[in-house]
Amino acid sequence: MLVGDTLRNSASRAPDHLALIGRSKRLSYAEFEGSANRLANALLGLGLDKGAKVAILSNNRPEYAIAYFAIAKTPYVSAHCSTRSIASELTYVLNRIGAEVMIVEAAFLPVVREALPQLDREPRLILLDEAPDTQGVTFIGDFVEGFPDDEPEVDLEERDALAITLTGGTTGFPKAVLVSHEARYASAVAAAEEFGIGEDDIVIASTPLFHTAGLFVWFGTAVLQGSTIVLPPAWDPVEFMNSVEAEKVTAAFLVPSQLN
């Protein structure tokens, strides 16, 4: 199965079920699916070649989730950049993968602009939110305007490339790891069985979506199962506990440093 199909199936089963909870946005599965389709169709409108890299640099938020699934519905490959990257690291990563498009949160525009002069190819910048200086970027609302929310018509296979995540880079620059639709679907199915989460669960995504564990093992599994997903933008133990209480969270994926 293709990763994009997991969202489509969950939206088909329960379109009105709450899918994403952000700080200022709540989306049903039907809204999540429609937004992903619209962005996918807009990206296809760029006419890029199969395998073109679309980088994402953002904190956890509903728009990140939409971008990931939008790219999964195209022949392009999403590349997930660490929000902790300094300009030299970002330059290395973007040059290494050859990103043609970058979807970025306004908070990270300064580091992106610092990296731009050193890039072999300047990617088209799509902004997830409002910013005081939008020179050289396209706001995502303008980018998707006029495109339909229908399922994109593309020819994809399970072994096609899906995404690139980056290693931690503790001994040098981060390494790019390419994964397929088949691999990430299989890991989501296995994780769903292991964790035992389902449509009635309200899960919280407290590890970064730019990380393999946060994106594929936890978030992707929750979408496969049709769970409700709370997306706090960054780790904060007080906000975490407040979200757990306010949203009646039933499942969380945490690393030891967060538990401590």
Structure description:
- This protein is α/β, with parallel strands linked by helices.
- It has a single domain, classed as Rossmann fold.
- It is 40% helix and 18% strand.
- It contains ten helices and twelve strands.
- The strands form two sheets. The chain has a seven-stranded mixed sheet, sandwiched between helices. Strands 2-1-11-10-12 form a five-stranded mixed sheet, with helices on both faces.
- Strand 10, helix 8 and strand 11 form a beta-alpha-beta unit.
- Helix 4 crosses helix 5 and helix 7 packs across helix 8.
Give the helices and strands, then pairings:
Blueprint: H1 3-13, E1 18-21, E2 26-28, H2 29-44, E3 53-57, H3 62-72, E4 77-80, H4 87-97, E5 101-104, H5 109-115, E6 124-127, E7 137-139, H6 140-144, E8 161-166, E9 176-180, H7 181-195, E10 202-204, H8 212-225, E11 228-230, H9 237-247, E12 251-252, H10 256-259
Parallel strand pairs: 1-11, 3-4, 3-5, 4-8, 5-6, 6-7, 10-11, 10-12
Antiparallel strand pairs: 1-2, 8-9
Helix pairs in contact: 1-2, 1-8, 2-3, 4-5, 7-8
What does this entry show, briefly?
By secondary structure, the chain is of the alpha/beta class.
